[in-house]
Design goal:
The structure is a single chain. It is built from 8 helices and 10 strands.
Length: 306
């Protein structure tokens, strides 16, 4: 064997022997230890122990070729417990890493350097990253379209609905009822929804789902068939509600001159002649005479026309 190889082996035997004796003493539950040094190799009383350790070292760690070269065949012995765990805290959770190394290669460089390969993996408990449960909405947080609305419903979404119906002349804002601080879906709202559905060519269910809500939001109010009682009427307004007003005046006995009626399809223009007929009715009904068809005048006309 080459002299440099002998010197290397001599140093390795001492280091490996000390490590193995320490490991064996733990595994075998012994209380004695046999510290070695370079001088101990010449002590005949301990040569037997060293020879045994040589065989273990050569078998488990190193092999020597015929030409005197040394080859590493394993990075470390397997003991009763081979796992090494390390944990480092990151924020509010721990990352656990376990590693093992095994390599085969030629001895080179500094022995104290890293000669093994390691792989690590970290895992985080899935429960720490679980998707938070969806917050349940209430009458205070519903948006129009979140649920189907019908007679008896109330909430922030019903308030949004009534606002749209009022702005599109389907509902009189003075007719909107409230419950717990929100608009109530009552008979007046149901009628308004049905009138909208009729104008939009939809089935008149009187209910509002997400599809109806979307159509309402994008409705062109010029297409609204305005029903009598939604707004106060005066010169020179026109609409289907003016047509209905003329019908009530005729039934109550205060008809405008039919020759002076101006119509545009189903809509009628509120002319001075119609205003005069309204004044006559107001005067005989003890209502302030204005010539405007306000809500009081309209309700009186309805009661007279039954």
């Amino acid at each position: 064997m080459k002299k440099p190889s002998k010197n290397i082996l001599k140093t390795l035997f001492v280091s490996a022997a000390m490590s193995l004796i320490h490991g064996n003493s733990k595994a075998e539950n012994t209380t004695t230890s046999m510290p070695l040094s370079l001088g101990d190799l010449g002590d005949n009383s301990k040569l037997g122990e060293v020879d045994n350790l040589k065989r273990k070292v050569l078998k488990n760690v190193w092999t020597v070729k015929r030409n005197g070269d040394i080859k590493l065949i394993a990075s470390h012995r397997s003991h009763s417990s081979h796992r090494s765990h390390s944990s480092s805290r990151h924020g509010n959770h721990y990352s656990h890493t376990s590693h093992s190394s095994s390599t085969t290669g030629s001895y080179g460089g500094s022995y104290g350097g890293s000669y093994g390969s390691s792989s690590s993996s970290s895992s985080t408990p899935s429960s720490l990253y679980s998707t938070p449960s969806k917050v349940k909405k209430t009458v205070d947080t519903y948006s129009l379209g979140d649920r189907t609305l019908s007679n008896g419903s109330y909430g922030a979404d019903v308030t949004e609905l009534t606002t749209i119906l009022v702005n599109n002349n389907y509902l009189n804002k003075n007719k909107v009822q409230t419950k717990s601080g929100h608009s109530l879906f009552d008979a007046n709202v149901t009628t308004a929804v049905k009138n909208f559905q009729k104008d939009a060519g939809l089935k008149q269910t009187g209910k509002v789902d997400s599809d109806i809500a979307s159509k309402l939001r994008n409705w062109d109010s010029s297409k609204t068939t305005i029903m009598l009682g939604i707004r106060e009427l005066n010169v020179p307004m026109e609409g289907y509600d003016v047509t209905q007003l003329v019908e009530l005046l005729n039934k109550a006995g205060y008809p405008p001159n039919p020759k002076l009626i101006e119509k545009n399809g189903n809509n009628t223009k509120y002319t001075e002649d119609i205003s005069t007929a309204v004044k006559l009715f107001q005067a005989y009904s003890d209502i302030p005479v204005t010539g405007n068809a306000d809500f009081v005048t309209i309700e009186k006309l309805r009661s007279k026309s039954k």
